[in-house]
Specification:
heterodimer; A: alpha/beta; Aldehyde Dehydrogenase, Chain A, domain 1; five-stranded parallel beta sheet; three-stranded antiparallel beta sheet; 10 helices; 10 strands; 44% helix; B: TIM Barrel; eight-stranded parallel beta sheet; 46% helix; globular
């Protein structure tokens, strides 16, 4: 007798939990032949709002964690991803990648995590400065995290796109909401499981999947979101994000696509510079 | 006021109470209804600060917030009262002036009530002399749990007398009374002894206010009203941190006691963080954008 396949229910990842969309909406994700790969959750405006609340709760703790710990946790992410390589290759293949590209994709993603793990306690030194001032003060400037950063990914994201956008945001002490288009929902939720088992505190990384128009306006207009990165060259989308983001003078960063270059500059996109005057003499 | 006949009180079905309370959590208020309920809830707030680190500056700021909760819309508010420790009553009274915002003070060895009756009454008199319009007293839960109900009745009656013209709110501290039956008995004793309001909790004990606890107290108020024709107010306090939950309380009050109780004369929320959540929801209704804590004053 043939055995029935037990398929995974893909849900959302909010505040360290895997809930369904509060709206109950799902969406059938199809492969190239039109066969159903999985039913994925379609997050709503309200899911996004709940996610911001969960992210805010996590932010202070993550911001306060030592750079060394952040680096260790990112490295742990890399370890866990490496361990589940085969599973990610199969999910990427289901989403339309060739075996060869899928292998390369996973390896690049693991390497990106190791790369940013290394920056955790180094970028501060590079971007800090001691400033000459003409008063008896020791004056220095150092980067501090921006806060809650929403990341909107595009249809070409893949695993590497998601990882290379997420890692520089969190290594700098920010918490993030990843808004992932349906096409990459299964990959993103598999990644959420990796995040969940890598000592990343609940709420520091959250994953919402679904239709971008359901989520992006709410994200851009939300007064408790401090920054948004939008990976898209769609001018209409960019314009609306900029307009809504102006409400609380959000930091808005545009990227042409999700494929991030490995560099410390993306970390600095979500850092603010804090200057301290310390009296001397 | 006569000592109540406690034998007439029927035992409480805990499962039934919980189920009934859970039903109030399934309602959804939208649009105009939500907006007016949020505005109503703001006017029912007893904005509270009861910490060792309270200072005149913090109390003054809180009073300003009570008088005008949000500067972008002066039609919202004012809150019903500010609630402080006796030593800060004068500061609060001066700050609220004749704005209509009441000054409430906790007294009677808040939050434990573990002191001699003489000192507890002196504290009430001191707070009233400083200008308190309302007194929030605590009952001796230890005495209550030993079965000394008559002692509780006498205690409340003495406090009521010490209050003079000030309104008396009686905190029964639901979280320490162990059973719903005890909550019912404590409510009956307090009302019979002259409480103007009955209040769930000090906010220092967990669990503080919950919907089932409040439901039992509302039912006591209703029964007391039907028996005597005297209206008693209700004040859930502690643990009501978000607007959604506050609206569920309002729905419960409306459905159990009717519209008559839906004013700040008869219903109050004792809260500190609820204020900002209500204001954030109101701003969301006004602007269409979800709000963040950075844009609202902390005190």
């Amino acid at each position: 007798m043939s055995r029935l396949k037990v398929k995974k229910t893909y849900k959302l990842y909010i505040g360290g939990k895997f809930p369904r969309s509060e709206s109950g909406r799902t969406h059938a994700l199809l492969d190239k032949k039109g066969d159903v790969i999985a039913n994925i959750a379609k997050a709503s405006k309200k899911d996004l709002r709940n996610t911001v609340v969960a992210t805010r709760k996590a932010q202070a703790g993550w911001q306060g964690a030592s750079p060394h710990l952040k680096g260790q946790i990112l490295y742990r992410l890399a370890e866990m991803l490496e361990g589940r390589k085969a599973q990610f290759i199969s999910v990427l293949k289901e989403s339309g990648m060739s075996e060869k590209s899928a292998i390369k994709e996973v390896e690049k993603s693991v390497d990106a995590l190791v790369y940013y793990a290394g920056w955790s306690d180094k970028f501060q030194a590079i971007y800090s400065s001691v400033n000459p001032v003409s008063s008896p003060h020791y004056n220095f400037s150092a980067p501090v995290p921006t806060g809650i950063v929403g990341v909107v990914l595009d249809d070409k994201a893949g695993l590497y796109g998601i990882v290379s956008q997420m890692a520089p945001v969190i290594v700098g002490g920010n918490s993030t909401l990843l808004v992932v288009p349906s096409k990459w929902a299964t990959v993103a939720m598999e990644l959420a499981e990796v995040i969940h088992t890598s000592d990343v505190p609940g709420g520091v990384v959250n994953v919402l999947t679904g239709e971008l128009p359901d989520m992006v306006p709410t994200l851009s207009g939300h007064m408790d979101v401090n920054a948004v990165a939008v990976c898209s060259s769609d001018n209409e989308l960019r314009k609306s994000v900029r307009e809504l983001g102006a409400e609380n003078v959000k930091r808005v960063v545009f990227r042409d696509n999700s494929k991030g270059n490995l560099s410390p500059y993306p970390i600095m996109d979500f850092q603010e510079i804090k200057t301290t005057w310390h009296p001397v003499g | 006021m006569a000592y109540p006949n406690l034998k007439d009180i029927a035992p409480i079905d805990e499962v039934g109470v919980k189920e009934r309370a859970a039903r109030y959590q399934k309602r959804s208020l939208k649009g105009e209804t939500k907006l007016s309920a949020l505005k109503l809830a703001v006017t029912m707030l007893d904005i509270t600060t009861l910490e060792g680190k309270d200072s005149p500056g913090k109390v003054k700021q809180m009073c300003r917030k009570a008088m005008c909760p949000i500067t972008s819309d002066p039609s919202i508010g004012p809150a019903a009262a500010v609630c402080v420790y006796p030593s800060l009553v004068k500061v609060a009274k001066t700050a609220v002036g004749d704005s209509g915002v009441q000054v409430a003070s906790v007294a009677t060895a808040f939050p434990s009530g573990q002191s001699r009756m003489r000192e507890r009454l002196t504290e009430i008199k001191y707070a009233v002399a400083e200008g308190a319009d309302e007194i929030d007293m605590v009952i001796s839960r230890g005495k209550f749990l030993t079965g000394n109900y008559r002692g509780i009745y006498d205690e409340v009656a003495k406090c009521k007398e010490a209050c003079g013209d000030a309104h008396l709110k009686v905190i029964i501290e639901t979280g320490e009374l162990e059973t719903l039956d005890n909550i019912r008995i404590a409510s009956e004793l307090s009302m019979a002894a002259g409480a103007d309001f009955i209040k769930t909790s000090t906010g220092k004990i967990s669990p503080a206010s919950t919907l089932p606890f409040t439901l039992v107290m509302l039912q006591s108020i209703l029964d007391y009203y039907e028996r005597t024709g005297i209206m008693v107010g209700m004040k859930p306090a502690g643990g009501i941190a978000d607007a959604k939950l506050a609206l569920q309380y309002l729905v419960m009050v409306k459905e159990m006691l009717g519209k008559k109780w839906l004013t700040n004369k008869w219903f109050r929320f004792g809260a500190s963080s609820l204020t900002n959540d209500l204001l954030m929801q109101l701003e969301k209704q006004r602007t269409g954008l979800y709000q963040g804590g950075d844009y609202f004053s902390k005190d």
